[in-house]
């Protein structure tokens, strides 16, 4: 059994002139689970991944695989498999040919090429020019490349982008399987909904700073709950709510009461003898929670 390898980001910082692309990012990405690296476009995901893979030098801080920087790994391709850009393949060469070049360079047996092509479902298209591949097929080729060295760590930039629904379903199961084998799987995405059914842990980055690290389950429990309530005597309702410690917000038809449940508000109206014409529980979806996180004030 190969030793599991965590990814460690320790105060990773990168500035491009006056742009603070990544600021003091510290996190551990553990083996045995899929971790989602989430944030809007320009948040700093790609820069962080490029630093991790030794493609860009950090301004300060370190990014390691079990304590070793990428450039110091004895056998990089068999330790870390990465696919950063689905579009970086030469259009005139076949998928199989691409993999053959990398396999030769990394001294990986040729037999492995057919194995990874099969794993990603590209066998029938393997000998076609990559120029004719769909984005989803290029994603699969990127994944095949990442898997060539049978690595313990897999790092994929936006791997779900461009896949059709069947492809999405497939990659979800595939990534979960890799994690279940004890591998460390890190995938980036700018949409939580895209990776929601795949990831166990979540790192959320915004403006170069980590704004959330934790399990998806914890993020789900942050769901805001609110109650929509309306009364023919809004002033009486408002004053009853405020007296009870709620912070009602006016809406066109009544009030939105954050952090409340319908039963408590209904009971309050009953005891305060305020007539209600509307009482409705509102549950914020996980994607909304994520979007709120994206627009919240700085948390550092
Ligand atoms: N080589 C560079 N020179 C100057 N600025 C850069 C460079 N690379 C990235 N940036 C800037 O750093 C910030 C973070 O970019 P980065 O590509 O890491 O974000 P991202 O989260 O990966 O976004 P996307 O999902 O759009 O790829 C952006 O403001 C970007 O313009």
UniProtKB/TrEMBL annotation:
InterPro entries: AAA+_ATPase, ABC_transporter-like_ATP-bd, P-loop_NTPase. The keyword Transcription regulation does not apply. The keyword ATP-binding applies. It comes from the Bacteria. PROSITE patterns: ABC_TRANSPORTER_2. GO terms for molecular function: ATP binding; ATP hydrolysis activity. PANTHER family: ABC TRANSPORTER, ATP-BINDING PROTEIN. This is ABC-2 type transport system ATP-binding protein. The lineage of its organism: Bacteria, Bacillati, Actinomycetota, Actinomycetes, Micrococcales.
